[in-house]
Structure formats: structure tokens, C-alpha cells
């Protein structure tokens, strides 16, 4: 019983750490250019949360790229300009965070 409680706490901590990291990555990569235009630092928090919620689907860097792209299309629409390069860089950064978390 104690191990399962500790595992749950660790899992929640990992989720929170990953959520913080993904939000930071999206802010730094700024795929839509919102931070550059003066948006608040937490502008991409909803997108970060929806990406991290799909973490179990991420078995490869390609999966991460697909999910990040899907979430940006979902949140901003297919017609909104999104930097493909920034999404690709953000996806690589997210994959690195996940890989480190699991190591």
C-alpha cells in the first residue's frame, strides 16, 4: 500500500514537472508568435496541458510531433499561421523531457 501511494505521488510530481517543462518549451519556441507579440508567459498553458494529457500516446519523437501539431491545429485552427520549424523544435524538446523523465 505504501509503495502505491509513493508511486502515485511520484507520478503526480512527474506530470507537474512535465507540464511546467512543456509550457516553458512552448513559450520559448513560440510557434504562433504570441509571446513575441507581447502575450503573457503562460499563453500556451492550455496547449501544454492538452499535450501532456496525451503523454501515454508518445512512444517516439514522431508521435510527439504529431500530437503537438494536432493540438496546435485543435487550439488555433488549421488556418492559423504556425511555425512548422518551431513545432518541430518544440516536439524534439518535449521528447527529450519525456525521455529524461522515464530514465
Describe the fold and architecture:
With 103 residues, this protein is an all-alpha fold. It contains 4 helices and no strands. It has helices spanning 2-29, 45-52, 61-76, 84-102. Helix 1 crosses helix 2 (45-52), helix 1 runs antiparallel to helix 4 (84-102) and helix 3 (61-76) crosses helix 4. The longest helix is centred in the N-terminal third of the chain and has 28 residues, at 2-29.
Uncertain runs are none
Strand content: under 5%
Overall 3D form: globular
In terms of structural class, how would the helical and strand content be classed? mainly alpha
State the total count of DSSP E strands: 0
**Rg value:** 14 Å
> How much helical structure, as a percent, in the residues?
55-70%
Oligomer: single chain
Average pLDDT metric: 88
Ends distance? 24 Å
SSE topology string: HHHH
Q: How many helix segments? A: 4
Biggest sheet features: none
Task: Give a quick rundown of the structure.
This protein is mainly α and 103 residues long.
What's the SSE blueprint?
Elements: H1 2-29, H2 45-52, H3 61-76, H4 84-102
Helix pairs in contact: 1-2, 1-4, 3-4
Q: Top keywords for this entry?
A:
103 residues; mainly alpha; 0% strand
Amino acid at each position: 500500500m505504501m509503495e502505491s501511494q509513493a508511486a502515485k505521488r511520484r507520478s503526480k510530481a512527474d506530470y507537474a514537472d512535465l507540464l511546467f517543462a512543456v509550457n516553458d518549451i512552448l513559450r520559448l519556441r513560440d510557434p504562433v508568435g504570441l509571446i513575441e507579440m507581447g502575450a503573457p508567459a503562460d499563453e500556451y498553458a492550455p496547449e501544454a496541458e492538452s499535450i501532456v494529457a496525451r503523454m501515454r500516446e508518445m512512444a517516439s519523437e514522431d508521435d510527439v510531433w504529431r500530437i503537438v501539431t494536432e493540438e496546435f491545429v485543435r487550439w488555433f485552427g488549421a488556418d492559423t499561421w504556425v511555425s512548422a520549424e518551431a513545432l518541430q523544435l518544440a516536439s524534439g524538446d518535449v521528447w527529450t523531457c519525456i525521455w529524461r523523465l522515464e530514465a
